[in-house]
Amino acid sequence: SSYDFFKGKNIDILAVPSFVSGKDSWSKKWKGYNGAPIPNDVEKTDIEKITEYEAWKKYAMHGRIQKEGMQTGINVFLRGDLWNLGTDGHTFLWNNNTAFEPKEPKDKTGSLINVWL
């Protein structure tokens, strides 16, 4: 998997800063890995079939952290109007075998997220 780097390491917390370009891209079809190699555990039929949100949930930190044996993780997205690119995405949290998706502000401005360990 793309998380092979973590194998055999004792990692307590994983923090993943992320960026998804394009206004409302979270609900659009996922275009895959933008030219990067597709990890072996990714179902290639998901490309152009599932949404960007579904892809992040399935193939990023949210969908992989438990397999890697980590207890706590957070995936946060840069939000707002950066260089007029538009942004999308929202926070995923994982703590003690429980997934959380905090409610995001409707105006897609910045958020302050607290993780209690």
Describe, in plain words, how this protein is organized in 3D:
The protein has helices at residues 52-59, 61-64; strands spanning 13-18, 20-21, 72-77, 87-88, 92-95, 98-100. By secondary structure, the protein is of the alpha+beta class. 10% of the residues lie in helices and 20% in strands.
Which features does this protein show?
2 helices, 117 residues, 6 strands, globular, single chain, 10% helix, two-stranded antiparallel ribbon, four-stranded mixed sheet, alpha+beta
Ordered list of secondary-structure elements with their pairings:
Blueprint: E1 13-18, E2 20-21, H1 52-59, H2 61-64, E3 72-77, E4 87-88, E5 92-95, E6 98-100
Parallel strand pairs: 1-3
Antiparallel strand pairs: 2-4, 3-5, 5-6
* Mean pLDDT value: 81
Distance between the termini: 27 Å
Nearest-angstrom radius of gyration? 15 Å
Tally of contiguous helical segments: 2
* Low-confidence regions: none
What is the share of helical residues?
10-25%
H-E order: EEHHEEEE
Instruction: Sketch the major β-sheet.
Output: 4 strands, mixed
Q: Main sheet: which strands, in order across? A: 1-3-5-6
Number of strands: 6
What is the percentage of strand-forming residues? 15-25%
Rough shape? globular
SSE-based structural type: alpha+beta
